[in-house]
Design goal:
single chain, Rossmann fold, UDP-galactose 4-epimerase, domain 1, three-stranded mixed β-sheet, globular, 40% helix, 2 domains, seven-stranded parallel β-sheet
């Protein structure tokens, strides 16, 4: 059982953050939830959970450093697209003597040069560079990047993988490109696995997946789960999609328009050949204690999204 000296701080309590907090608690880790609000939302945790809340200013290294004293690790699940936004958290973790830092990576294969070059991932590349620089200057500071592909349950719930209510999907190319996908709960389990294997996950990326699937397979599961074959399918080529998004980005958009373009630029890293979206043969499932789902289990996740 983890001791009180193995307290882990979680920055952010959104869709992924809540799962991470619950998984750490279930594994008996004491947890500190970093929050901007003095009235954090209820996390529905066991009554005996060792969970503390610390109100912080995410732009202040001193505020974060004070909150991170005597912590083994920090897991950042902050929703961020701004370059440098996680830098104060990284600096504070190093200042406080935190041993392991997990950035808000949780997604595509940033080791792939094509994915890394997509404008939407510029902030992640900058965060990675900051971590590496910090680790070189502070030998006790280490990091792990968790890469899990697209979130399966979240991607269904929030119309990222397909549009559930409209019964529609945009198929890239032939729809046969395999891609890795993982539920939020499994990603959280992988985070626990990182802390259970600090030496083997030191200063590197780990890859995790619940399954590898194609868009065509997902569509068939969606038809079965929704109880209807009547689905609207829009077909696009990856190249046309990419060029259209890049052209729109060249018009200096802002606000919601910029956000939509950045979301559009996520898709090539998932559905396009050559972008490293299939983690088969390189994942760390066994090390992290993750068992891949059977096809029936994946079908249930899809069906449950329509319930």
């Amino acid at each position: 059982m983890p001791s009180s000296t193995q307290r882990i701080a979680v920055a952010g309590a959104g869709s992924l953050g809540v799962h991470v907090i619950r998984a750490l608690v279930a594994a008996s880790y004491p947890v500190t939830v970093l929050t901007r609000s003095s009235q954090p939302k209820s996390l529905d945790l066991p009554s005996d959970a060792d969970v503390k809340y610390a109100t912080v200013d995410y732009t202040s290294v001193s505020s974060l450093s004070a909150a991170l004293q005597n912590h083994l690790g920090v897991v950042s699940t902050i929703t961020s697209t701004a370059t440098g936004e996680q830098n104060p958290l990284i600096e504070a973790a190093a200042n406080a003597g935190v041993q392991r830092f997990l950035p808000a990576e949780f997604g595509s294969n940033m080791a792939n040069s094509k994915t890394r070059a997509l404008p939407v991932y510029g902030y992640k590349a900058a965060t990675e560079a900051k971590m590496i620089e910090t680790a070189k200057a502070n030998p006790n500071f280490t990091y792990t990047m968790v890469r899990n592909g697209v979130f399966l349950d979240w991607g269904l719930q929030y119309d990222f993988l397909l549009k559930m209510k409209e019964h529609s999907i945009t198929i890239f190319d032939q729809g046969e490109q395999p891609f890795s996908t993982t539920t939020l709960a499994t990603v959280a389990k992988a985070v626990v696995g990182v802390f259970q294997h600090l030496d083997k996950t030191k200063n590197r990326a780990v890859y995790v997946q619940d399954t590898v699937i194609t868009q065509n397979e997902l569509l068939q599961m969606a038809k079965k789960g929704s109880g209807t074959e009547d689905w609207k399918v829009e077909r696009v080529t990856s190249e046309d999609w990419y060029q259209k998004a890049m052209a729109a980005l060249g018009n200096s958009p802002s606000g919601e328009e910029l956000g939509k373009i950045m979301v559009d630029l996520l898709y090539p890293s998932i559905y396009t050949e050559g972008y490293g979206g299939d983690f088969s043969g390189k994942n760390d499932n066994e090390l992290l204690g993750v068992r891949e789902m059977s096809r029936r289990e994946v079908e249930k996740v899809v069906a449950d999204a329509f319930a």
